[in-house]
């Protein structure tokens, strides 16, 4: 027995579940994109992923006085390294402080690398510099 689509009336074969003309489901009726059919065949409302939960206090900016306190604490010799590591690992209440600590640690690491390169180059080229200074120094000697 040939069947027809419930939405557009186009003929359907026995093994055909969806209408080739309009895409209507033969068993559950018209289904809109993003809408699923429930157990009774009635379309249910689309489900969406819930938004990320708000993080109160994490996205707030740091005040000017807060930055002053941060830089005052970072001026202490050993305390600054400990605080930067704790803050960079997320042990603070604000994202801005975490980003500041990570940036300060990266900047400090780059400065340390440049200092080590300078020391290594100084050790390697010190004898050459001494010879050059002896030649130049003799030319500027006044008697």
Molecular structure report:
This protein has 143 residues and is mainly α. Among the domains are: 1-36, no CATH class; 79-139, no CATH class. It has helices at 64-74, 77-88, 95-139, and strands at 3-4, 11-12. Strands 1-2 form a two-stranded antiparallel sheet. The longest helix is centred in the C-terminal third of the chain and has 45 residues, at 95-139. The radius of gyration is 37 Å and the shape is elongated.
Average pLDDT confidence is 80
Number of helices: 3
Structure class: mainly alpha
Estimate percent helicity.
Answer: 40-55%
Low-confidence stretches: none
Between the first and last Cα atoms, what is the distance in angstroms?
124 Å
Range of strand content: under 5%
Strand order of the largest sheet: 1-2
- Secondary-structure element order, N to C: EEHHH
Q: In total, how many beta strands?
A: 2
The general outline is elongated
Quaternary structure of the protein: single chain
Biggest β-sheet, characterized?
2 strands, antiparallel
Radius of gyration of CA atoms, rounded to a whole number = 37 Å
């Amino acid at each position: 027995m040939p069947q027809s689509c419930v939405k557009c009336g186009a003929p359907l074969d026995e093994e055909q579940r969806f209408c080739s003309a309009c895409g209507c489901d033969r068993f559950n009726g018209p289904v809109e994109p993003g809408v699923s059919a429930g157990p009774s065949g009635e379309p249910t409302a689309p489900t969406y992923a819930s938004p990320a939960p708000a993080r109160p206090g994490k996205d707030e900016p740091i005040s000017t006085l807060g930055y002053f306190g941060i830089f005052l604490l970072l001026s202490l010799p050993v305390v600054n390294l400990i605080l930067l590591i704790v803050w960079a690992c997320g042990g603070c209440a604000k994202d801005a402080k975490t980003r500041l600590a990570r940036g300060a640690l990266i900047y400090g690491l780059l400065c340390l690398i440049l200092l080590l390169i300078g020391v290594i180059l100084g050790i390697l080229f010190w004898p050459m510099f001494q010879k050059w200074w002896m030649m130049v120094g003799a030319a500027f000697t006044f008697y």
